[in-house]
Specification:
With about 900 residues, this protein is of the alpha+beta class. It is about 20% helix and about 25% strand. It has 20 helices and 48 strands. The strands form eleven sheets. It has an eight-stranded mixed sheet. An eight-stranded parallel beta barrel has the order 27-28-31-34-35-36-37-38. Strands 41-42-43-48-45-46 form a six-stranded antiparallel sheet, covered by helices on one side. Strand 42 and strand 43 form a beta hairpin. It is globular, with a radius of gyration of 29 Å. The chain starts with a helix and ends with a strand.
Length: about 900
């Protein structure tokens, strides 16, 4: 089909592509970086990366380095025959020097979600087909002229048998209705081909899949009044579903087997006339042996219930369980998004080293035990969070997630020195971003002396404990992918019930950066599954909101519906990245979204990068730690981050600002003095400047738990390794940059609280007090200047930005003023004036923040308003004042 490509490219288009970051000539693609378009100078290196490189930021890969040719232009010439190397519609960006990402020029015509798009206007030749019913297939032919002769089409089943075609009835320019001459089975696999155009496609089930919906309660539901138990499970293409009931967890034979009955929407149902609370159950799902199917006939396995309230770890049976009574609501209501100061925390990390009884280690219970202290007499654990002053606890995943069985894991690594050293020889420690059962609660967080199901009550009790202290609780959900294809191919439920329904696939196989992508678009029952799990956490536990992992892979319409379903008072934010691997999703503006049209509050990584630098491949202490770290070119980004004026900041609550989060480098490690390890000393003044920038920015904020006490992941070496279990399963360990499965590196070292500065130690006590002061200021009446959700005037932030970029000062709504020097040397702002009448009181310096008592022993303790003066700042210094009007 090469003639089609040649037809698409005219000299006019090639000239236009020069402005888009590339040009094309035959089989050659040339990437072009124009320094003038990017308003940059003093560039030493340029590389290109994108979806075709899986966004690899490696600057040293010569294959992707551009060469300077002329005064302002950089080129990279690649052979791209039939566009196999760089496919049309690929997203790309340029990086310069030591890895600085370059946002596209504002006037580039091929921008999408802040990336450049290769050949964005090209309509690729494609054939799509969707089965509507047993006598109708909907056909869409794009990029070439659609034929309407039946002889041009060939319809076959999964085993190559030809199905005769009765007619092709054109609808619109690209669409037509194909009618088979004989009945087909809409649940089976079929292929459609247009041979002379070399187009062939799987006949999708979208035509009727998107019409299947049931409002019925799924899973095992106990009717308390009538003493009966309803079982429901959704499998649209199954021939038969069987339900098995067991008295005990490990019984090999069921005491009862029931044939389930499908309703008109393919929800399979069974009713038992008794209350089965505590009974165990599983299913077998039966169907044709077509490719892509994993029914019992080809995969003879019992599966668990995706709606189970209790599941015995990821691998075991489900358990019938009554609904949990939720915690009582927060008195005064959930904090509105504008007021959110959230604290992200992992149950096991937080509780591992607390001085609690053995049965409470790593449990929900341990997180709420008051009265704990360390050897310095400092309040730790639950009391530390209360003292800190945050108003939202953000729990990392607590839904049942996959971890490999302890018996296999221990046998595999019992003598492995590395695994022992990292605290993971005894168990498959995980952060939890591999949900196996979205309605069950993680078994590992249950107190050791309690029975299955008690984890539900213990999570509810945790929520109640924080509610009693006026703190909201939100949880991190992971609906974008599931555990079924993590470290291997597993068959918990969705893969068997109908992989093609529940997941995005290509050629009947999973796609996705993390093993799979859950398909919410055109799948009402998957959309329901996502919303139902959130409603369950609200209604049965009292959860106050959610953080959504990789929310960018959930279609926009589902997120809009989720926002409406859970209630506008609930906290809701998530990651706007990463892109789906499904081109249909990416090309549909009703589904795909990014920051500018986000249906939820998004993580504002532009602010993060400006405040303290990027999170990947840290190399340079001068350039990879943002403005707080001394990268002066980031000052312009800091100004936008503080005042909420990035292009995607449509309102002050569009994004949530942060410095670090569980992924990648801890803040203490990014500001480490040596070897990117905070354990070897932290540049504390720079870290305090980063914190000050965060806490004096507009909108909601989230803190990575432990940043306030300089928690470091330095125990983990910066090395990538692969370990193999006894059963052949490979385990990937990424080291310090991503410690998702390294237990010791993530533990809260509670003994650090109270430690003061000496030759070998950081001033943990001083840093914690500094963060407490910032939190208290932000949530005070004074800090209300930052907590707003209405448009601000252009002068709401008044910036003093001297020619020396190491200096920045700003006045917020004539109420709070901040001055910063990120240089290693003393610096002076020569024209410094604070507005108003009366005077301004110093409330913050490198030593402490106290907005109530102020700082009275400093040279700048009091500054008269409306008086111009010189302001001299110490090296890496900061000052904060409040207007005493």
């Amino acid at each position: 089909m090469k003639w089609i490509w040649l037809f698409l490219f005219t000299p006019l288009m090639v000239a236009g592509q020069m402005k888009e970051g590339y040009k094309v000539s035959g089989d050659t693609t040339v990437f072009v970086f124009n320094e003038r378009e990017y308003h940059t100078r003093n560039i030493s290196r340029v590389v290109v990366t994108g979806t075709f490189r899986k966004w690899d930021p490696n600057m040293d890969d010569t294959e992707w380095q551009l060469t300077k040719n002329g005064k302002n232009l950089w080129y990279l010439k690649l052979e791209n025959p039939e566009f196999k190397v760089i496919p049309p519609h690929s997203e790309f960006k340029f990086l310069i020097n030591d890895g600085e990402w370059m946002d596209p020029p504002a006037k580039a015509p091929n921008i999408k979600w802040n990336n450049l798009i290769f050949m964005h206007e090209v309509i690729l030749p494609s054939l799509k087909a969707s089965i509507l019913n047993d006598y109708a297939v909907w056909v869409d032919v794009s990029g070439v002229s659609r034929p309407i002769q039946t002889s041009h089409y060939r319809l076959t089943d999964a085993f190559g048998n030809i199905i005769p075609i009765s007619s092709i009835l054109p609808n619109e320019e690209t669409t037509a209705l194909l009618t088979p001459a004989e009945k087909i089975d809409r649940r089976r696999i079929y292929y459609l081909e247009i041979a002379h155009l070399q187009l062939r496609t799987l006949c999708s089930f979208d035509g009727w899949f998107k019409t299947l919906y049931s409002p019925k309660e799924m899973g095992a539901q106990i009717d308390m009044e009538n003493k009966r138990t309803h079982f429901r499970i959704f499998s649209p293409r199954a021939d038969q579903v069987k339900l098995y009931l067991y008295k005990n967890e490990k019984d090999t034979l069921p005491y009862q087997t029931l044939e389930m009955i499908p309703d008109e929407n393919r929800v399979w149902e069974a009713v038992v006339e008794e209350n089965l609370h505590g009974v165990f159950y599983d299913f077998t799902v039966h169907g044709p042996r077509d490719p892509g199917n994993h029914f019992f006939e080809t995969m003879p396995k019992h599966i668990s219930d995706p709606y189970a309230r209790v599941n015995i770890d990821a691998w075991g049976r489900s358990m019938v369980y009554e609904k949990t009574l939720p915690a009582t609501p927060l008195v005064g209501g959930i904090p509105p998004m504008k007021n959110v100061v959230a604290y992200e925390v992992h149950i096991q990390d937080f509780t591992d080293l607390l001085p609690v009884k053995r049965e409470f280690k790593s449990s929900f219970k341990a997180m709420t035990i008051p009265g704990l202290t360390n050897s310095h007499g400092e309040r730790i654990g639950f009391d530390h969070l209360i003292d800190l002053g945050i108003n939202v606890v953000h729990l990392m995943p607590v839904q049942e997630y996959m971890h490999h069985p302890d018996s296999i894991w221990k046998e595999s690594f019992k003598d492995d020195h590395y695994m022992i050293e990292q605290g993971i020889a005894e168990e498959n420690y995980q952060w939890g971003y591999r949900t196996s059962h979205a309605f069950a609660i993680e078994n590992k967080y249950r107190s050791k002396n309690t029975v299955h199901g008690e984890e539900r009550n213990q999570l509810r009790d945790l929520v109640q404990a924080f509610h009693d202290k006026g703190i909201a609780v939100i949880v991190d959900i992971v609906p974008n992918h599931t555990a079924e294809d993590m470290d291997g191919h597993w068959y918990f439920h969705f893969n068997v019930l109908d992989k093609i329904y529940y997941y995005r696939t290509k050629n009947l196989e999973h796609i996705g950066e993390y093993g799979n992508e859950v398909k919410t678009e055109n799948r009402p029952m998957v959309q329901k599954w996502l919303i139902d799990q959130c409603l369950s956490l609200i209604e049965e536990f009292g959860i106050d909101g959610f953080r959504i992992d990789l929310a960018g892979q959930i279609d926009r319409q589902t997120l809009i519906k989720l926002r409406e379903a859970i209630g506008k008072d609930k906290i809701l934010y998530g990651e706007p990245w990463i892109a789906s691997n499904d081109p249909d999703f990416e090309s549909n503006p009703s589904w795909d979204w990014y920051k500018h049209n986000s249906p939820i509050t998004f993580f504002q990584d532009d602010a993060r990068n400006a405040f303290k630098g990027p999170v990947f491949d840290l190399k340079s202490i001068k350039k990879d730690r943002g403005y707080a770290g001394g990268h002066l070119d980031d000052r312009k980004g800091v100004i936008k981050a503080l005042s909420n004026t990035f292009p995607d900041d449509l309102m002050t609550t569009s994004g949530i600002n942060y410095l670090d989060i569980h992924d990648n480098w801890a803040l203490a490690d990014q500001f480490a003095k040596h070897d990117w390890s905070g354990k070897l000393g932290v540049e504390e003044d720079r870290m305090k400047i980063a914190a000050t920038l965060l806490f004096t920015s507009l909108g909601p904020i989230v803190i990575h738990g432990g940043s306030e006490m300089m928690r470091s992941k330095g125990h983990a070496p910066l090395v990538e390794i692969i370990k193999t279990m006894k059963n052949g399963v490979k385990v990937h360990i990424h080291g310090k940059r991503d410690t998702y499965n390294l237990r010791r590196a993530n533990q809260f070292d509670w003994e650090n609280l109270g430690k003061e500065d000496n030759e070998d130690q950081n001033d943990y006590k001083g840093m914690t007090a500094f963060w407490k002061g910032l939190i208290k200021m932000r949530l005070s009446t004074l800090g209300g200047v930052f907590r707003i959700d209405v448009p601000t005037p252009s002068d709401y932030y008044q910036f003093i930005a001297p020619e020396d970029k190491a200096l920045l000062a700003y006045i917020v709504n004539d109420t709070i003023a901040v001055a910063i020097n990120v240089s290693h040397s003393q610096k002076t702002i020569h024209q410094f004036t604070l507005p108003g009448e009366g005077h301004w009181q110093l409330i913050g310096s490198n030593e402490k923040v106290d907005h109530e008592k102020g700082i009275t022993d400093h040279f700048y303790s009091v500054i008269n308003a409306n008086t111009t003066r010189e302001l001299t700042l110490p090296p890496v210094g900061l000052l904060i004042w409040k207007n005493m009007k």
